[in-house]
Predict the 3D structure of the following.
Amino acid sequence: MVGRCWLARRLLLAYGVALLLAAGTTARGQSAAGAPPISKATPTAETGEVKARKLLDQMVAALGGPRWLALKSTYLEGRTSGFYQGKPTGSVTDFFSLRTPPGPQGPGEERTEYTKKHDVVSIFTSAEAWEITYRGKTPIPAEQASDYFRRRDHSVEQAVLVWLRDPATILLSEGQTEAERHLSDQVTLISSANESITLQLDTESHLPLRRLFRWRDPLYKDLNEEAESYDDYHLIDGVQTPFSLTRFHNGDMVSQRFLYRASYNVPAPAAAFDPDATAARLKH
């Protein structure tokens, strides 16, 4: 009889302990589900987007703020030189360039005159590319035209004036890196067409140091990287202007451009972007 009572008490004790353990486990599960994590939360996509937008706002303010955003035209004079596999080709010439910015009206237009005589002219409209000399106008080779249009469609101006205003564009803040021997903040914009532009901004001045984008060759399927680096900024008409621009293709230097004059909101001459009118003028 004593043995049976002792056994019954042991069974009741074990049952009670089991109930307590089960209740404790349930309570802990409910507490964990309802309580915030004790570890540091990783940045969310929204947090990254907010930071990226802040960095881009700082860049625009550094470039000139509302004045930069409202530019109607950019006029540049300087000298450009070509490189092949990172080595100078010996091709050096003066240039005189007038371009309009992208926006709702289209991607903008550009007219560049070469040599001190201004007797070789290239004109890029929204979808056409022409070279004009005293012999008349000829289409710029397709490969060169495509290269120009790709760079135009992935420019700093395109990133801010077009992509940033599209609610479908994704913004990424990708931390800090080194660009042109300066510490920089890296921001990437991804368009609704799944194209991307990466900007590296000086952490102190917030000015763009480098712009990168990648594209896949339609024939060979290779992934190519195009980059531009910006240096030697000068404040011209209230706009910070890089007087040194270097282009790279897959890490190799392609060209360098050095300015000796810049101005903004210069009225475009009549028919400035008309290749036929330009050809008629050069023939005389």
In short: The longest helix spans residues 2-34. The radius of gyration is 30 Å. The helical segments are 2-34, 45-63, 66-69, 142-153, 156-163, 275-282.
